[in-house]
Design goal:
This protein has 293 residues and is of the alpha/beta class. 54% of the residues lie in helices and 8% in strands.
């Protein structure tokens, strides 16, 4: 609905907190794909780094344990592993497929489990008291190390995880300002992270995006939100007017750059969010074509 900065409207006909994600097929209909070699190579590089991090950091203990068990009878284990090639192939082939698009851990976790179970099942240890004792100790060490990792990770999440109620506070403040559930709002930022909208049961009707959803995806050096804040006042007002005309009863943003013109914006409590409403800036909604005004 606006060229530069790019602004998008999601008022109708798809419902939901963020309609663009509720039904991507509707909004992407007619989209023409193009191949960008530079971005594709960037994506493959990021995916490869992610896989290496999983293997040598997150899964370091199972990897060392497998190599230790494998060394007890390398020839027998290797021969046995070859018989499992159909399972290994089926579990491994999705990894490069996801690497092309997005190597999110939650997408490949099940395949990694199948791979690890298969390679461990292929290990063969000589049936002697000494090797059995060594294999048992290696297995217990791996189990203990993984268990410690899980406990420490859970402790870190419990102690240093997100504890503030910023998103809930924003949603509550909007309700007290007269923005009831179901209201269409505008957002300058990444709507994927607009948790206040979900908590307040609001609907993002217009957006000037700030970033992509997948943090591993190539992100341009300048987003549309950056373009908005670096634009002159008439351009900003024009973009805000089309967002208001699309059905946004108020417009929010988060962490605007230092030096931004926030004359009509109201900070929401002690949060980093700011809101623009018809009360604080009547000129944006005046003549916007909103049938409720």
């Amino acid at each position: 609905i606006f060229e530069r900065p790019a602004a998008y409207e999601f008022a109708q006909p798809v419902s939901g907190t963020y309609p663009a994600w509720s039904d991507p097929s509707y909004w992407n209909e007619g989209l023409k794909m193009r191949f960008d070699l530079k971005q594709q190579l960037h994506r493959l590089n990021r995916s490869a780094m992610h896989y290496l991090s999983l293997l040598f950091v997150s899964l370091a203990a199972p990897l060392v344990g497998f190599l230790a068990l494998y060394s007890l009878s390398a020839a027998a284990s290797a021969a046995n592993l070859k018989t499992y090639w159909p399972i290994l192939f089926a579990a491994a082939i999705p990894l490069p497929m996801y690497a092309i698009l997005t190597a999110d851990t939650r997408f490949i976790a099940a395949f990694l489990v199948v791979l690890w179970v298969t390679v461990l099942a292929a290990v063969r240890v000589p049936d002697t008291p000494q090797t059995v004792r060594i294999a048992s100790r290696i297995s217990m060490a791996v189990i203990f190390t993984v268990l410690v990792q899980v406990i420490l990770g859970s402790y870190e999440n419990a102690r240093y995880g997100v504890k503030d109620d910023t998103e809930a506070s924003v949603a509550d403040t909007l309700h007290r300002m007269g923005v009831p559930p179901g209201t269409g709002v505008g957002y300058i930022g990444s709507s994927f992270e607009a948790y206040w909208a979900r908590l307040g049961r609001l609907r993002i009707a217009a957006e000037i995006p700030a970033s992509t959803f997948d943090s591993l995806t190539y992100t341009p050096p300048s987003t549309d939100a950056d373009v908005f804040w670096s634009s002159n006042r008439p351009t900003q007002d024009a973009a805000l007017r089309v967002m208001a005309a699309s059905g946004a009863k108020c417009i929010l943003t988060k962490n605007p750059p230092k030096g931004s013109n926030l004359a009509c914006w109201k900070e929401i409590g002690d949060t980093s969010y700011y809101v623009l409403t018809p009360e604080t800036c009547q000129g944006i909604w005046k003549g916007s074509g909103d049938p409720d005004d």
